[in-house]
Short-chain dehydrogenase (Kwoniella heveanensis BCC8398), 269 residues
Amino acid sequence: MAPVDTLSFKCALITGGAGGLGKAMAIELLKRGKKVLLAGRSEDKLIATTKEINASGYYVLDTGDIASIPDFIEKLTKEHPEVDCLINNAGVQRPLQLFSDEYSFDLKSADQEIDINIRGPLHLSIGMIERHFSKLENGAVIMNVSSVLGFVPFSVINPVYNGTKAWLHMFSTNLRTQLAKSTTSEGAKKIKIVEIVPPAVETDLHRDRTNPDDNKKENMPHSLSIDEFMEDVKKGWESNLDTVSAGPGKEVVKVWGETMGARYDKMAQ
């Protein structure tokens, strides 16, 4: 039994959906006739975006508040039993640098980054699979938004972020294999795991840097606009790819797939 196709779902929950890449994906999915629910930390932004794009609703959720996730999943699936897609998009990037004039290494900030970027997607994914997605007759889709920095950690002032995205890449890879090989749940085999791998994109992800606009085209020529990013993401969705990237990120994903990915496929057998 194969997992469902990437765009076969009917209703998606997008974390970090009030702006940036989350909002862009929401707009595209709405164009395709999908029902979209937004989740995020700022209710004001959620209200504004929900009205602007005509999403079906929103939930205030801090993905770093792990203790709140079980109750959130219960509320979500009770109010929207039709939800069959989770997009783990929420994330933060904090510059953390030892012995630097520009930045410090704040362990409390690093812990929060780990909670939001790792523990949030972990608890949401496993909770939704066990309590809801594996029980759906027509399958489900989980999309995890990682980063090229999880493949090649060249942004040396972001060691924690790089590590969290490397974790999300490996987690997505292993979860895909586990579900495909499940011997106790037929529903698990129908769940599609998609990894979205952004390169540098003109979002507000760098808001904690000394120059929060250093990922804009005038400062970083190879950075993609959100529209450019979405053009490649749409093609990846339509091609039913397991791993979707854009712009210069496509080459990074290709090289990993041909080298470590091929070795993984062999060893995972």
Notes: The chain has a mean pLDDT of 94. The chain is about 40% helix and 15% strand.
